[in-house]
Structure to design on (672 residues):
């Protein structure tokens, strides 16, 4: 029974090792849990779980093992599962002649209508929301401008995504992979002597003492502190999925670096409009104006994203891929505003560099914000440019 | 088997059942207790409460960004020795005279069991907790300067607090008993306030707590007010002799609750419109 609990915890990604398990056994033999399930809950959680972010998983495991309840039955998941079913591209129906791309407003309206009408799972066909099929709604379909619902997007031009996104928190420590990135980021630091003089400078003390004919003359100086401030803004979901682990490494490196005076991170989806998402509660956001108010222009801003989107999303008002987001200003204007406020802004792009000139939105963004490949080398050269001050857009992509 | 003392909470600290139990677990299996939680949820106070409840002295080690692990063990005062050699008072050949114990060393050498509070461990360098692993496991350390080994006479009860400014290394976490102090709900908060102000009028208390949670619920506060700020605020209200009616229309002394001007503006505007 208890061992099942251990393995359920481990399967839910709670890092429990034998050592903690032995501590728990120790506690149990001392009868600390007083043989009551409630107390066992507190005791085992205190010993086995080392971070509040795992509390939820612990609760699930506990329920599963000791109440005999199903761990995660919920309706929403069932629905998503149905939509997530992989559909073989070969099995996609042929696109009928004359099925032309629908206009965005029309799509929005029809989607809402059909969502209301639809009551059951549906695959194939050309009307209902489901997988496969040539209806503009659902995923893995073949309609030229469809709204994607659940599931991975096949191509990159689904104009609107109306799915519940899970913003993953890129908060894993990956010391091995991140070491190089950390070193690169470290070069961003700007050391200044500030504060109370409480550090003995041995070299100067020796010099001063010699000058003082051997009488000790102690020289104290304020410690050197890093004054660099960094904001990291990351694209999540959709076409960035293949690069998730690279983002994770970069995030860990920046987050674990103790040397920044300030470090903030935000998320966005495809392009930045009038707000950014904060990570903690997945769908909370902060407006761009708030960002300008909160952070001085001395902050370094690093944006990570593939910059690949439907040109509509970058150049048109209300072009956001997020169905419910309305904004009058096109994304490209927002990027210009960011560049104006934060002169030290750069963009890291995980897409292979040779594709950049060919993609219209990468090219357009690259003309506003200097772009570097997302790699240790790319980051290093970005950091070198950031150190020199405001980053000009040096080279135009041919 | 040696009887370990049990923590029962103390008169000036309201601890939840779960928290009491976690403290007792840490006490009996002899592992450090790692406390996390929002600033102001009473992590540091808990250590004081434990020391008082089980009747042991408290040794407090405050961690700063410049603190090194060795600072907690011992300190070799070379400057004093240099000074003495120059001006000739004292025997400089006896290095022992210039070795001073750090807080951890003090706790090891105490003749009775103590409670050692390592406060805000996340302030220190990333590697700091790792540098203490062996000392925490074996409860002893070595001073190369004097060729001396210091080992703990009694295993101290260690309470470590963290505000999660940095992530702690896994190897360190593995050795701790962990508890996340959640922000108290309204009922627990009333109990906590009653401990501090036993004579407070209940209508004022209700109104103040209501307003406090209202403010906390607002989005994007740079620093949401915590228990300690609520206590300060009530202190101010009581000192000025205000009652529940004063809270109906506005929030006096908002500065006790919110500490940044970005927060003050919007919140003041909103409470005025209530």
């Amino acid at each position: 029974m208890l061992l099942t609990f251990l393995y359920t915890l481990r399967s839910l990604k709670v890092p429990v090792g034998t050592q903690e398990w032995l501590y728990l056994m120790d506690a149990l033999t001392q009868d600390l849990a007083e043989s009551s399930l409630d107390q066992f809950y507190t005791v085992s959680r205190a010993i086995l779980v080392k971070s509040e972010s795992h509390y939820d998983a612990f609760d699930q495991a506990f329920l599963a093992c000791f109440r005999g309840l199903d761990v995660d039955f919920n309706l929403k998941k069932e629905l998503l599962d149905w939509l997530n079913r992989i559909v073989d591209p070969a099995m996609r129906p042929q696109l009928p002649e004359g099925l032309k791309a629908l206009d965005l407003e029309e799509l929005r309206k029809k989607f809402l209508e059909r969502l209301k009408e639809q009551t059951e799972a549906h695959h194939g066909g050309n009307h209902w929301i489901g997988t496969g099929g040539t209806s503009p709604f659902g995923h893995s379909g073949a309609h030229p401008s469809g709204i994607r619902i659940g599931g991975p997007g096949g191509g990159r031009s689904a104009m609107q995504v109306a799915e519940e996104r899970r913003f993953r928190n890129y908060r894993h420590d990956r010391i091995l992979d991140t070491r190089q990135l950390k070193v690169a980021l470290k070069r961003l630091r700007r050391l200044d002597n500030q504060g109370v003089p409480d550090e003995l400078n041995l070299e100067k003390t020796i010099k001063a003492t010699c000058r003082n004919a051997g009488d000790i003359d102690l020289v104290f100086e304020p410690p050197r502190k890093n004054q660099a401030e960094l904001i990291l803004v990351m694209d999540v979901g959709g076409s960035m999925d293949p690069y998730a682990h690279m983002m994770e490494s970069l995030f860990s490196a920046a987050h674990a670096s103790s040397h920044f005076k300030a470090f903030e991170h935000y998320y966005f989806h495809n392009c930045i409009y009038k707000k950014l998402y904060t990570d903690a509660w997945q769908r909370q956001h902060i407006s761009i104006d708030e960002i300008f108010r909160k952070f001085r222009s001395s902050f370094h801003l690093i944006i990570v994203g593939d910059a690949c989107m439907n040109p509509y999303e970058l150049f048109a008002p209300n072009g956001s891929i997020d169905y419910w987001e309305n904004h009058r200003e096109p994304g490209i204007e927002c990027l210009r505003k960011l560049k104006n406020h934060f002169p030290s802004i750069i963009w890291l792009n995980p897409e292979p560099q040779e594709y950049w000139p060919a993609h219209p939105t990468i090219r357009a963004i690259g003309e506003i914000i200097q772009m570097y490949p997302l790699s240790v080398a790319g980051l290093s050269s970005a950091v070198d440019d950031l150190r020199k001050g405001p980053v000009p857009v040096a080279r135009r992509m041919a | 088997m040696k009887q370990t003392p049990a923590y029962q909470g103390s008169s000036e600290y309201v601890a939840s059942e779960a928290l009491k139990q976690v403290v007792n677990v840490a006490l009996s299996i002899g592992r450090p207790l790692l406390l996390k939680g929002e600033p102001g949820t009473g992590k540091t106070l808990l250590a004081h409460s434990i020391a008082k409840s089980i009747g042991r002295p408290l040794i407090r080690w405050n961690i700063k960004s410049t603190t090194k692990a060795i600072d907690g063990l011992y300190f070799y005062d070379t400057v004093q020795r240099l000074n003495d050699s120059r001006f000739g008072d004292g025997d400089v050949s006896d290095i022992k005279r210039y070795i001073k114990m750090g807080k951890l060393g003090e706790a090891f050498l105490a003749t009775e069991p103590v409670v050692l509070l390592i406060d805000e461990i996340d302030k220190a360098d990333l590697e700091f907790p790792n540098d203490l692993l062996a000392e925490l496991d074996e409860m002893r350390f070595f001073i190369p300067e004097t060729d001396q080994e210091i080992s703990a006479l009694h295993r101290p009860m260690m309470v470590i607090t963290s505000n999660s400014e940095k992530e702690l290394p896994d190897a360190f976490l593995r050795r701790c008993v962990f508890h996340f102090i959640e922000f108290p709900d309204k009922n627990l908060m009333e109990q906590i306030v009653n401990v501090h102000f036993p004579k407070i009028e209940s209508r004022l208390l209700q109104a103040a707590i209501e307003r406090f949670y209202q403010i906390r619920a607002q989005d994007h506060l740079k620093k949401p007010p915590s228990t300690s700020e609520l206590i300060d605020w009530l202190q101010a209200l009581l000192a000025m002799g205000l009652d529940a009616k004063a809270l109906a229309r506005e929030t006096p002394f908002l500065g006790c609750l919110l500490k940044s001007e970005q927060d003050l503006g919007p919140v003041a505007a909103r409470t005025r419109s209530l």
Observations:
- Chain B has two domains: 17-181, 186-272.
- Chain B touches chain A at residues 17-18, 21-22, 24-26, 28-29, 31, 34, 36, 66, 79, 82-83, 86, 125-126, 166-167, 170, 173-180, 219-220, 262 (CB under 8 Å).
